Amino acid sequence: MVKIGINEKSLPFDLNWFDKLNCAKSCGFSFVELSIDETDARMKRLDWNKEQRLNLVQDVFKSGVPIDTMMLSALRKFPLGSEDEDVYEKSFEICKKAILLAKDLGIRNIQIAGYDEYYEKKSLLTRENFIENLRRVVNFAAENQVMIAIETMDDKFINSIAKVREVKKDISSPWLQAYPDLGNISAWPENIPSQDLAEGLENIVSVHVKDTIKVTDNNPGKFKNVPFGEGDVEFFGLFKTLHRIGYNGTLTVEMWSEKSNNSVMLMHQAHDFILELLTKAKLVVDK
């Protein structure tokens, strides 16, 4: 059985949290994914006081819609593998704050982007720093019983579950797992998405659902803002794969429509598109 959730960046930007949660529910979604991105406003959430945290917990209880996962995309600006010692330490502090916030809000799973470096040059050192710093993060997460899940990315550094499993050889912990993005693993020509999912099942703790356009020799691909059904992702086949391998868990619809005038309509359309294909693939959806 699977649950369909939606990322916060799909929801109307100006709504308060209680209304965001209810909006997600009205569009058919079972949970919301909290965004901690690079913006100052969202990074300030890491320093919420007890009252602010309690207010959101109360909104969750009143609405009946949990916040099951967190997207910690702030690490693009402060990457774990940075060669800059100050940035390296800042990224670890961000992760520690995110883990404690997740613990207070009842979030089970923090998604960390699989980048050693995003804006600056990659090197052997950035890879080694990433592994070293991620080990510190995972140890702190284990102490607090919060899952760290590496997302498969729009970057060759970690663009498959197989590459997450390679990282796990260096960091052996049940608190470090994979958060595959169906769009991202489908976009890279070297990947066989159904095989990647099947071989990586034991490490999958959540799945992102978005459409993408494939990378080719003449095209860098497109990893964001591709409307469902207009990209190259073979959703029906991938959902059949998830059914065949016995995946049970969450599916998080990912869009960037929060500042769109028709964000609610897009949410409804995305939900109906995904639900129809899940039903056809015989994946049972938990309402």
Automatic annotation (TrEMBL):
Domain of life: Bacteria
Name of the protein this chain belongs to: L-ribulose-5-phosphate 3-epimerase
InterPro entries according to UniProt: L-Ru-5P_3-Epase (IPR004560), Sugar_Epim/Isomerase (IPR050417), Xyl_isomerase-like_sf (IPR036237), Xyl_isomerase-like_TIM-brl (IPR013022)
UniProt GO BP: L-ascorbic acid metabolic process
UniProt keyword annotation of Disulfide bond present: no
One Pfam family linked to the record: AP_endonuc_2
Domain Xylose isomerase-like TIM barrel: 24-263
Record key words, sorted: Isomerase
Listed PANTHER family: ISOMERASE, L-RIBULOSE-5-PHOSPHATE 3-EPIMERASE SGBU-RELATED
GO molecular function, one term: L-ribulose-5-phosphate 3-epimerase activity
Keyword S-adenosyl-L-methionine: no
